Each structure stands twice: as C-alpha cells, then as structure tokens.
Amino acid sequence: MIRTIVVDPLAPSHFAFKEVDAPQAKPWEALVKVKTVSLNRGEVKDAKDQEAFSRPGWDFAGIVIEPAKNGEGPQKGARVVGLLPMGAWSEQVAAPLSMLAEIPEKLTFADAATLPVAGLTALYALRKGGMLLGKRIFITGSTGGVGLFAHQLAAQSGAYVVGTASTEEKADLVRETGSDEVIIGYSAISSARKFGPYDLIIDSVGGNTLAALLPQLAHQGVCVAVGFSSSNTSTIDMMNLVTSGGRTLYSFFLGEELTRQSVADDLSLLARLVTDKRLIPRIEVEAPWTEINTVAQNMMERKFSGKAVLHIA
Fold first, then answer.
1. Which pLDDT belongs to residue 188?
2. What pLDDT, on the 0 to 100 scale, is given for residue 186?
3. Residue 170 contacts by C-beta under 8 Å, 6 or more apart in sequence?
4. Of these four, 69, 167, 187, 270, which has the most CB atoms within 10 Å of its CB?
5. How far apart are CA 75 and CA 94, in angstroms?
6. For the chain, percent helix, then strand, then coil, each to nearest 5?
7. What residue spans of 47-167 are helical by DSSP H?
8. Residues linked to residue 310 through DSSP beta bridges, in sequence order
9. Structural domain spans, the chain
10. Which Gene Ontology molecular-function terms are recorded (predicted)?
11. SS3 of 129, please?
12. pLDDT tens digits, residue range 225-277?
C-alpha cells in the first residue's frame, strides 16, 4: 500500500490522504518513487469539481525503482522528472516513458518538479511565434509559473519582451527574468500599445484583457491563449480582427500539445537549461506534502508568485 492525495469535498481545500494499492507498471512504464511534486493553479481549482477520492496531480520528480519491462528508458536508480494526467501526488507512480526524462545529478528534485506543466507550456507557447530573434513579445500573468519561464526563455531567444505585474515589487521580479518593459496594473493593458505591435502575445488572463490585446498584434502576429484567470468569456472586435487580416488567435491546451511533441526530449532540454543556470525556477513555497491544504489555499488566494513545491517524506 502507498499513500496518495485524493479529492475530499469535506477537507478545507478539498484534499486529503488515503492509502491505496501500489501502482502496477505496464511494459512501457517505469515505477517511480516520488520525491517532490509541484502545484499548478489549474489542478487545484479543478479539484473542487472532481468526484470524491479522485486522484489529482500532474508534476513530479523522483527516483526510478523499477524500470520499464520493455528495457527502454531510465534504469533503476535514475533521477527523473515526469508528467501525468492525474495521480502524481503519490508516494509512487507508474509513468509512461514518453512523459519521463532523466535529470542531471546537479538538478534538485524541487527545481525539477516545477518544469513539466509550467515549463512545457511556456516553451510550446513561445514556439508558436517561430524564430523569435528581434521580435516583440507581450506576456500576461508574468509572475506566475508559466509567465516567469516564458519571460526567461523569450529573453534568451533574443526577443524584445514586455510583461505585466500588479505591484512595483512584482514588477522587479519580472525585470529579473530579462523583461525589457513591465506594465504595472492589469487595468492598464491598453498602455502596452506604446511598445507594440507584437509578433507574439501569450495571454493567460482572458476576458477583457484578451479582447484588448488582439488589436495590438502585428501583421502575421499570433496570440496564444493559454488560460482565462479573469474570465472564461471575451467579447472580441471581430471587424478589427477580420479586416486587419493575417492575425492568429491560437487556443492552447497542453494536453493536446503533448500528443504532437517529444515530451521526454523537451523535459530534458528544460532540465539542462536549469542545470546550466540559464533557466531559474522561481519557487516561492516549499513544504511537506502534509501541508497540501494550506499551500493550495494560499495559491488560490494568490498569496505568492511563482511555484509551490511539496516534498514527500
């Protein structure tokens, strides 16, 4: 038997612990002893709508205790990072090799656990802009896990990057990522015009923010909608969008993207960038996984920026 975190509608933040049978790996899966997991707002928010005792969790890092029976992938004792559609917040997981990557010895389990959802979302969203050297990029949600990774990767690609922040203190955090300009206050998105037009916009806010950003796209520009933290509806000026021509609004869902990408290779890439200190995860909270309810509640109340990592004893 192993312990895992499950959805419990009666718990303060809808999470509780339960003993379940240890996972049985399929031939193309490795059995991993989980050392750390990271939290994403989406999975925490979604837990409130899931059935009781369902098992949440996407990001994890740990040690292979049983390699895949097909003989491929990381071997026993390998340090790995991975991604699951559910159930990653467990003492052990059976992970498909396609979603698993070995990590360097110098990379901590805490840093590694931040990479799958946030890191891959940032990487794949930026790739929608093609060659980024010399291009102008606007990123909303700049102080979140995805935003901080996106800023760093965009800056290293030679782009001119503009971000957002709700306070001057958080603006300093965005500047540290290499952002060229930071707009303070989400109600002032229209002021971003002076730094545009933009070849690529990555938006995680949705609602009125998305509507205000679309006219700021350059010809052949792409707006990648990765979330909707403010509102899941938006009123778009279709006349402007259609008559301007050549602009693209791309709906981004990581689950769909993973079916068309080499996840293991891209996780390895992100891990190497962190090891080489070219990409720095912003971990604001580290705690034992027994504090899941407190950390989840603080995340939903936006009491910290960056990532939260839980350690499994």
1. 67
2. 61
3. 143, 305
4. 270
5. 14
6. 35, 30, 35
7. 109-113, 120-127, 145-156
8. 37, 287
9. 2-117+262-311, 129-251
10. acryloyl-CoA reductase (NADPH) activity
11. coil
12. 999 988 889 999 888 888 888 999 999 999 999 998 889 999 999 999 999 99
Cα atoms in the 13 Å half-sphere on the side-chain side of 306 = 15
Residue whose token pair is 């030679």:
158
Whether domain 2-117+262-311 has CATH 3.90.180.10: yes
Buried b (16+ CB within 10 A) or exposed e, 248-268: ebeebebeebbeeeebbebbb
Length of the chain: 313
Percent of the chain at pLDDT exceeding 70 = 99
CA distance 129 to 121: 13
CA distance linking residue 217 with residue 252, whole number of Å: 17
Whole-structure pTM value: 0.95
Report the run of H or E that residue 189 belongs to, with start and end.
none
Q: Under CATH, domain 129-251 is a member of which superfamily?
A: NAD(P)-binding Rossmann-like Domain (3.40.50.720)
Average pLDDT over residues 183-198: 85
Q: How many angstroms separate the Cα of 180 from the Cα of each of 50, 144, 154?
A: 41, 18, 11
**Angstrom distances, CA of residue 72 to CA of 27, 69, 104, 117, 161:** 9, 8, 18, 24, 40
DSSP classification of residue 77: T
Q: Which two tokens stand for residue 53?
A: 């005792």
Distances (CA, A) of 290 to 165, 305, 307: 31, 21, 17
Instruction: Name 287's Cβ contacts closer than 8 Å, sequence gap at least 6.
Output: 294, 295, 308, 309, 310, 311
- What 3-state DSSP class applies to 124? helix
pLDDT over 90 for what percent of the chain? 86
- Span 16-45, pLDDT tens digits: 999 999 999 999 999 999 999 999 998 998
